[in-house]
Amino acid sequence: MKSILAAAAMVVAMAQMAQAQDIAAGEQSFKKCFPCHSIGEGAKNKVGPVLNGIDGRHSGTAPDYSYSDANKNSGITWDEATFKEYIKDPRAKIPNTKMIFPGIKNEKEAGDLWAYLKQFGPDGNKK
C-alpha cells in the first residue's frame, strides 16, 4: 500500500513539474505576442487588447479596447480549444479581425502559451 501511495505522489509531483515547464515555455512564447499585447498587473491595451482574464472571456470584451465588429460579433468564448484553433491562423478563425499575426502552428507551443495566459485573472493577478 505504501508503494502505491508513493507512486501516486510521484505521478502528482511529475504532473506539477510538467505544468510548470509548460507555463515557463508559454511565457517564452508570449514574447511573440508582447509587441501588441500585455498581461499581468498594470497591463495596458496596446495595438491589441490586454489578455488578462482571457479564460472564459467573451471575444471583443476587454475594457477600453476598440475591437473590430468581426471580433465583437464572433460569438467566441475563450477556452483552450478555441484559443489553439484561433492562434494557428487568427484571420481564418475570425475573418476581418484587426489582428495581423502569422500564427503559432505548433500544437505544443500553442498549449504552453494558453497555460501561461490562463493563469492571469481579470485583475492581472495570477490565480
Short description:
By secondary structure, this protein is mainly α. It has helices spanning 2-29, 69-72, 80-88, 90-93, 107-117.
Write the layout of secondary structure elements.
Blueprint: H1 2-29, H2 69-72, H3 80-88, H4 90-93, H5 107-117
Helix pairs in contact: 1-5, 3-5
Q: What keyword list fits this structure?
A:
single chain; 127 residues; mainly alpha; 5 helices; 44% helix; 0% strand; globular
Question: In words, what does this structure look like?
Answer:
By secondary structure, the chain is mostly helical. Helices cover 44% and strands 0% of the residues. The chain is built from five helices and no strands. The chain has helices at residues 2-29, 69-72, 80-88, 90-93, 107-117. Helix 1 packs across helix 5 and helix 3 crosses helix 5 (107-117).
How helix-rich are the residues, as a percent range?
40-55%
Uncertain stretches of 5 or more adjacent residues: 13-18
The number of strands is: 0
Tell me the series of helices and strands, N- to C-terminal: HHHHH
Beta-strand portion reads under 5%
Label the structural class. Answer: mainly alpha
Question: Biggest sheet, in brief?
Answer: none
Shape: globular
